[in-house]
Amino acid sequence: MPHEPHRLRSALTALAGFIALSAVAGLLVSVGVAPGVVVAGRAAGAAATTFDSIPEFIEIQKLQQRNVLYAERGGEQVPFATLYSENRVTVGWDDVAQTVKDAAVAGEDHGFYEHGAVDLTSLARAAAGSALSRELGAAGGGSTLTMQLVRNILVAQAEALDDPAERKAAYKKATELSTSRKIAEMKFAIGLEKRYTKDEILLAYLNIAYFGDNTYGVEAASQRYFGKNAKALAPSEAASLVATVQNPERRNLSSASHYKANKARRDVILEAMHEHGKISAATLGKAKAKTVRSSVHLTSATQGCLAVGEIGARQWCDLIRRMVKTMPALGETTTEREHNWRLGGYEIHTTLDLDLTATAKQQVDTYAPKDEVRYDLGGVVVSVEADSGRVIVMTQNKDFDDTRDGGGPTTTAVNYAVDQKWGSSTGFQPGSTYKPFTLIDWLNKGHLLGETVNATPRDFSPMRICGAADFTTFDPKNDDFGNPGTVTARQATARSINTAFAAMAQKLDLCDIRDVAASLGVHAADGADLVAYPSSVIGSGNTVAPVTMAAAFAGIANGGVYCEPIYIDSIVDGDGKKLAGHRSHCERVMDAGVAAKVASAMQGVFTGGTATSANPRDGVPILGKTGTTDHAEQTWLVGGSSKVVTASWVGNISGHQNQYRIYGGYGAMNQQRLTIWRNVQARINAVYGGDAFAAPAPEYIAPPPAPPRADDADDDAPPADDTGRSDSAEE
Q1: SS3 650
Q2: Cα–Cα distance between 600 and 349 in angstroms, integer?
Q3: Which one, 46, 459, 611, 615, has the greatest CB density within 10 A?
Q4: DSSP secondary structure of 292-304
Q5: Nearest to 276 by CA among 511, 99, 436
Q6: How many angstroms separate the CA atoms of 632 and 726, rounded?
């Protein structure tokens, strides 16, 4: 008979296991955990040697848990995203219903509170069963609840290892069916009961146990399967959960196909609870009569940024997921931070306002539709608190999807609001929104808002770059291809006149203009150096992220004090300890008097300049600047109140489509970023309000010459139309 040798070997292995386990059991009875006891027989000697080589203690360590991201809604911090390696919520003794504790003891180890760490009777019965059935463990492992906890701890330790190969090997060792593993479990169990109370061990078991469907611990399991906390479980529900742990794949409650197997084990546990006096006969009858189906109320175990249900917040979730792993609060090294994040248990309290972000998402979806098929259209809204740098709004038209195949042209894993290192975007040319940096340097050098320049189109070379003359031809055109003649710096700002800013820059040094931008946090989104050459003055050459421009203008609105953008207010670890988030870093980067003059000129953009139609007219003072690059490939409006500044960008994500040709001319195209900005900022103003900007000191200059056009005489007079025809950037 071909199977006889194999059956004989199995029988001998099982018999050896029986002898070894019996020997160790005797050893435990006689000496507890003391080493060096002589036991007769070869198997006993081997068992003792194995026993001596095992450390005496194992710790009930911190378990992998959920990380939860929070944001603000209605003035309160609320959870909006859950990220984890293991879906677990560790709870305390009082957070678990007594019915759950009773069910666990009745179902897994009814003598738990009476016997020691190792139940010799159960162990001997299991060993004898293994020998009779010729298979080790066939009649059960004889494990006490404490020994089961040991096995779960070893598995958890294995799964927490950083190296995949080490993790796989450790998991195999922790779960293998062998005498040596059983011996280790016994010794560790004895060590546990020397260091922890029975209640502590039971609670640790309930927190660590696997309940199927990627759900760990009784609290997460209760939420997943019954839609309630573990503190509120009825006897039938508690018994159903405990029924799962012996066979989590076949008895978990995620599928109706498992209900029959679950109920069969559930009823056995309920009978045991009654037998040991934990529930009455009436309760037993009522619990057994209840169907599993009637108890189950599945709650989606949402995980990851794709599962975020808050409108417009998925890209934000991905940003925080990337950013938090660089936070010193999680550890000193990258490896330590990655390990601690995977271990989990963190609450990440972010700066985002979910209500305002939902408004912004609705606006950008309406006026920069994600399903535009004629070209790769993008739209972003970002809002930053001026006096802190807290980013309260961040959303875009393309929905978040980081799956391998993606979700088609309406989705992306790229966050176009931030730098490449945080969202994989290389940024966009800022167009005329870059012009205020020339105005700031103009005022820094002692020039005035009322000072005039010759804005007649011409070659403006040479320019000065870092002290040296540059004779590169620079002959920009205005967007209307007109000749504004002589204008003031104030008029040039409100009407966004390219040639006027070229004339101003010709009296300055382009490196100083670049340095002004850098002092307000402006940097290339791809990490390159900011360029300083003639066309950069009107927004060409550099590519920046919308959040960068919002923060820079916030520095102007904040009276010349720039605050770096921050995204995380605080972190709370698994022990409830509050850790540091992003610290607000603010510093004065321009003279307050200069800031007041710049703010005064930039208010004219809304009162009679290129953004007149974007003015919410709600009584809140606002400043800002529009921007449009060559052929309207990128369009911007950045501005806001003394409290919050918003950047609205609509443009080409890729390619070089002239948006005027798609949307029926300048007026229609111009309105998209303006309408988005107006509606978003109006909602923000209703929440935050805003103060009057500081009044600039009077300038004593001779009246400027009369301009060639009547509508240029008053720098607050509206242009021929309020669609922004005089807005310009690189043309």
Answers
A1: strand
A2: 36
A3: 611
A4: HHHH--------S
A5: 99
A6: 13
Query: How many whole angstroms separate alpha carbon 48 and alpha carbon 54?
Result: 10
Q: What is the helix (H) or strand (E) element at residue 33, kind and residue range?
A: none
Residue 155's domain comprises 86-109+144-295
Nearest to 351 by CA among 388, 326, 303: 388
Helical H runs in 368-497?
Answer: 420-423, 435-444, 489-495
| Interval 531-553: pLDDT, tens | 999 999 999 999 999 999 999 99
Q: Give residue-wise pLDDT tens across range 490-547.
A: 999 999 999 999 999 999 999 999 999 999 999 999 999 999 999 999 999 999 999 9
Q: List the one residue out of 111, 113, 102 whose CA is nearest residue 279.
A: 102
What is residue 466's DSSP assignment? T
Place of tokens 């961040």: 394
Please report which helix (H) or strand (E) contains residue 468, including its range. strand 468-470
Q: Which residues pair with 73 in a beta bridge?
A: 76
Residue 711 pLDDT exceeds 70: no
| Cα separation, 523 vs 541, whole angstroms | 12
The b/e string for 174-211 (b: 16+ C-beta within 10 A; e otherwise) is beeeebbbbbbbbbbbbbbbeebeeeebbbbbbbbbbb
Look up residue 406 and give its DSSP letter. Answer: -
Any idea which residue has 């309020």 for tokens? Answer: 722
At 386, list the tokens.
């001026």
CA-based nearest residue to 523, from 427, 655, 423, 390: 427
What would the 3-class secondary structure string for 346-402 be? Answer: CEEEEEEEHHHHHHHHHHHHHHCCCCCCCCCEEEEEEEEECCCCEEEEEEECCEECC
Q: What is the pLDDT of residues 134-174, one digit of tens each?
A: 444 433 456 899 999 999 888 888 887 777 888 888 878 88
**CA dist list (Å): 296 to 238, 414, 654:** 12, 39, 49
Give residue for tokens 């599962």. Answer: 307
Tell me, yes or no, whether 341 lies in a domain.
no
Q: Does residue 514 contact residue 534 with C-beta atoms inside 8 Å? A: no
Instruction: Write the burial class of residue 424 (CB in 10 Å: 0-12 exposed, 13-18 middle, 19+ buried).
Output: middle
Q: State how far Cα 94 lies from the chain centre.
A: 31
Cα–Cα separations (whole angstroms), residue 76 to 79, 541, 557: 10, 42, 27
Helix (H) or strand (E) holding 700: none
Q: What's the token pair of residue 216?
A: 């760990």
**Strands 644-652 and 634-640: what pairing?**
antiparallel
- The torsion region of residue 227 among left (phi > 0), alpha (psi -120 to 50) and beta comes to left
Residue 151 counted as domain residue = yes
Residue 149 · residue 225 · CB < 8 Å: no
- For position 123, what pLDDT does the model report? 65
Kindly list the distances between the CA atom of residue 305 and the CA atoms of 64, 77, 313, 394, in Å, as whole numbers in the listed order. Answer: 19, 18, 9, 15
Name the β-bridge partners of 381.
395, 648
CA angle 584, 590, 592 (to 5 degrees): 95
In sequence order, what are the residues at sequence separation of 6 or more whose Cβ sits closer than 8 angstroms to the Cβ of residue 506?
460, 463, 464
Beta-bridge partner residues of 380 = 396, 649
With 80 as the cut, is the pLDDT of residue 39 above it?
no
How many Å apart are CA 577 and CA 544, to the nearest integer?
A: 37
In a domain, 719, yes or no: no
Query: Edge-to-edge strand order for the sheet containing 67-73?
Result: 76-83, 67-73, 347-353, 568-572, 578-580
What 3-state class would DSSP assign to 453?
strand
Enumerate the β-bridge partners of residue 382.
Answer: 394, 647
* Residue 251 counted as domain residue: yes
> Residue 201's domain is classified under what CATH number?
1.10.3810.10
Task: Say how many domains are in the chain.
Answer: 1
Helix axes 592-607, 435-444, angle to 10 degrees: 140
Report yes or no: 715 and 491 within 8 Å, Cβ to Cβ: yes
Cβ-count burial 634-646 (b if 16+ within 10 Å, e if not): bbbbbbbbbbbbb
